[in-house]
Automatic annotation (TrEMBL):
Pfam families: Asparaginase_2. The keyword Hydrolase applies. It comes from candidate division TA06 bacterium. The lineage of its organism: Bacteria, Bacteria division TA06. The record marks 165-166 as: Cleavage. It comes from the Bacteria. Keywords: Autocatalytic cleavage, Hydrolase, Protease. The active site is at residue 166. GO terms for molecular function: hydrolase activity, acting on carbon-nitrogen (but not peptide) bonds, in linear amides; peptidase activity. GO terms for biological process: proteolysis. GO terms for cellular component: cytoplasm. Substrate binds at residues 194-197, 217-220. Coiled coil: none annotated. This is Peptidase T.
Length: 299
């Protein structure tokens, strides 16, 4: 029987070990996706369901819990890709959408485009029947105000508070299709309109069913420069295991950009890889015939 399964993450980075509640939520998103795969649903369905669950969970920096940019407005990025025909969809700097990953899927399936941004993306999402949603959770506004008062150099500030609760998922279904997805409120305190790696195909995500899939998390300004997800898949294509390929690209990221990130991957044989050069990263995965595994990624 062909291996199927799903891996998800709740972001890399942070100064504190992710709470058990957060790790359990990632595990729950994996169980949701896994149930769909078991029923014979597609990898795209599983990735979307896992990410929607995490977007609706205010502890994560995506959807409902998204961070606020410098002007106090949350703008979200999300992307999804299916690896059979290399179709992809993304939204960037979109406001007031409950589930940006649904909007990204609608871009992939209902348009000839790969990415929509800003107001155009929002209007398209609403017209596609995707629920609108206010993001300003009280916790996020407090966090934004606190940081607004801090005197930091911008880069230092970015590094201390980037994403770290962004969400992502990669799945392989019974038919062997691979899909990857990612969703984020980006980094706190960035210039209005800033977009990271998450909606950029090749950087934040990549999927090719003949090789596997990857989803990245960490400071987007560094991740885009090493085209992280596609670089990992290229090494996997040459024979590296997902874990080894992730480790090699993460080493290069650290050496060249000084960046810190994490990523998850699955290959066509159903092997899972999780790697990060940050201190923490919450993740969970479940492959066919196995129990769910989870961790806070303590190195
Ligand atoms: N990659 C996201 C961004 O830079 C943040 C994160 O994954 O933590 O927007």
């Amino acid at each position: 029987m062909r291996a199927f399964g799903i891996v998800a993450d709740g972001g890399a980075g942070g100064r504190r070990r992710p709470s058990r509640r957060r790790v359990m939520a990632v595990a729950k998103s994996v169980e949701l996706g896994y149930c769909l795969l078991e029923e014979g649903k597609s990898a795209v369905d599983a990735v979307e369901a896992a990410i929607v669950f995490l977007e609706d969970y205010p502890d994560f920096n995506a959807g409902t819990g998204s961070r606020l940019q410098l002007d106090g407005v949350p703008r979200m990025d999300a992307s999804i890709m299916e690896g059979d025909r290399l179709r992809a969809g993304a939204v960037a700097a979109v406001e007031n959408i409950k589930n940006p990953i649904r909007a990204a899927r609608a871009v992939m399936e209902r348009t000839e485009h790969v990415m929509l941004v800003g107001e155009g993306a929002r209007r398209f999402a609403v017209a596609s029947g995707i629920e609108e949603g206010e993001v300003r959770t009280a916790r996020r506004i407090e966090e934004w105000k606190r940081n607004l008062c801090k005197e930091h150099k911008h880069r230092q500030l970015l590094e201390s508070i980037y994403g770290c609760e962004t969400v992502g998922a990669v799945a392989i279904d019974r038919q062997g299709q691979v899909a990857s997805g990612c969703s984020t409120g980006g980094a706190l305190f960035v210039l209005p309109g800033r977009v990271g790696d998450t909606p950029i195909v090749g950087a934040g995500i990549y999927a090719d069913s003949s090789i596997g899939g990857v989803s990245a998390t960490g400071l987007g300004e560094d991740i885009v420069r090493v085209v992280l997800s596609k670089s990992v898949l290229e090494l996997m294509e040459k024979g590296s295991s997902p874990r080894m390929a992730l480790r090699m690209v993460m080493n290069r990221l650290e050496k060249v950009t000084g960046g810190r990130a994490g990523a998850i991957a699955i290959d066509g044989r159903g092997r899972v890889g999780v790697w990060h050069n940050t201190e923490f990263m919450s993740y969970a995965y479940r492959m066919s015939g196995r129990k769910v595994k989870m961790g806070a990624g303590v190195k």
